[in-house]
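Quick start: what a row looks like.
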Amino acid sequence: MSKAIISIFFSICFNTSLTANPALIHGNVKGFLSGEQLNYYLPFNNRFYNNNIVSFKSVIKPDGNFKEIINIDNPVFIKITIRGIPIYLFITPNDSINILINLDKVNRQGGTKDWLICHGSNAVGQQYFNNYYFGFNLLKKFQPIFNVYAQRFDNKNIMIKAVEDSISESLDYFTYLNKQKKISDIFYRNVTLTLKAYLYHEALKPFLRPSILSNKINLETLNKIRASFFLKINPFDTILLTGVLSSSYIVNYVTFLDIKKRHYRTSSDIQDSTIIINNKKITIDKFFVPYMYIKNSPIKEYLWGNDIINFLEMFPGEELKDDNVNGFSYYFPKSVYIPIIKKLSTINQKSDSATFLSRNVSVILLDTLQKEISLHHLINKYLKGKNIYADLWATWCQPCLTEFSENKNLDTFFTNNNIIRLYISI
């Protein structure tokens, strides 16, 4: 690929020069290390939130200051990361937002509420959004649903009402800010819609995947509960995809369509599907089958392309079936995702888990004595050449905690086979 083609591709994909509605993002970082960079994730197709592809990186100046011009046509969330810490900013054309990042108030255990200070457009809402829903309080965004399912409901209508009430309550502060004119109507609509969609996504999990709840409910009742949640939000409202969380809600919806059509009970029953393209059979992996229910549109391209990229990045060394890429390429031959998918596919064919680890050696972990240790040091000093059982878990993940007791039964097996156990809490 020539430099000219590469330049055109990045201009289209990341919208660095084709629009004339610049938004200014500037600020200061305290406690940074020399050479540290800010990673910017700009909208896909200048339209939808992009969580996967770094658009560009910028080095922080010696005094901690930074300044970037972001060209956009539509209001949308962007993501900026430093040391893996995500910062989510809702920006509009011709916006100006100033952020102050204090890394001294950030540690591996969490951060104080003033680790991020925003000025400018929707400042109080931006700050609250990062502190409460992302920042370092991951449990809070799940808590409304946890609280409902911790109770016992004999009447499913009461349970559904309890879910709806808990979601409404979790958005009360944004409603208050909007009434006080401290956040704009467009920010309020976007943030409440995306958070509602995400919380409904969480509420639907037990009814889409194998679980105790699903096993105790007949299929007709299951479908009624699923449908009642989906009726609350239009899954194909394009504003959903300008938000941070809500694409998962759309995926749940199309998964439900497939489950309902084939009379499956949960998503685990979904099978690979064969479609005919140009008189040729193409097999779509069951993971991507639900996307067949979305009309050919930017939404379908966005979701399907994103998930192919996610697969290739999350499972290095695993080769994605050619048919999945061919199917995507058939529907979207000019997609900006295709060069990225082809590049990742080539890397994966020559890669394995060890290569993946080597690309992430700069990751810093905190051991049980609260001492920092790099993945690079951990591998070279303790793990190199050894058989490893790695378990990624989280303190807020109840299934993870349940698995710990089950893992005790594997202790003898691990010991007898010289396997080292590595537990990493995220």
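That is the whole record. The CA atoms of residues 109 and 136 lie 8 Å apart. The first strand starts at residue 22 and ends at 30.
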